[in-house]
Amino acid sequence: MRSFRLRRKRSKQVVSLFGGNVMVDFCINEMLEMQETLQKKYKDIWEEISPEVGKNKLLWMIGEIGEVVDIIKKHGGEKASQDAGLRGQLVEELADVLMYYNDVLLCYGISAEELKQSYTRKFEKNMKRW
């Protein structure tokens, strides 16, 4: 089994999986920090981050996933990925999904390192599955 490799290029972290396309990394820690900043700014308006609120954040995330599905269902995957306007909407809704996902991580105190370890184990298990 090949493993993925990380390289540095022009001071930005770049990820290359199995020699495939290269993409600029937007790391979980970066997203978590941004989400914490939003939470602090709106602490008097938004629900407090806690395990009890995690369920609500999951439900909001599912609602955002529904908005992603609506775009694809209404316009088709091909058009949603190629039409500039629709693609912008699709990416924005996916960003909303990620924002709630990061809220869920914050609610349950899940760190990027903890997620990475679990994700890596799951990846390795799936690589051996079929």
Structural account:
This protein has 130 residues and is mainly alpha-helical. It has one domain (27-129): Helix Hairpins, CATH 1.10.287. Helices cover 67% and strands 10% of the residues. It has helices at 28-41, 51-75, 77-82, 84-107, 112-129; strands spanning 5-9, 12-16, 22-24. It has a three-stranded antiparallel β-sheet with strand order 1-2-3, with no helix packed on it. A hairpin with a 2-residue loop joins strand 1 and strand 2 (12-16).
In short:
With 130 residues, this protein is mainly alpha-helical. It is built from five helices and three strands; from the N terminus they run βββααααα.
Distance between the termini: 13 Å
Which spans have pLDDT < 50 for at least 5 consecutive residues? 1-18
The main sheet comes to: 3 strands, antiparallel
Structural category is mainly alpha
Number of contiguous helices: 5
User: What is the CATH topology classification name?
Assistant: Helix Hairpins
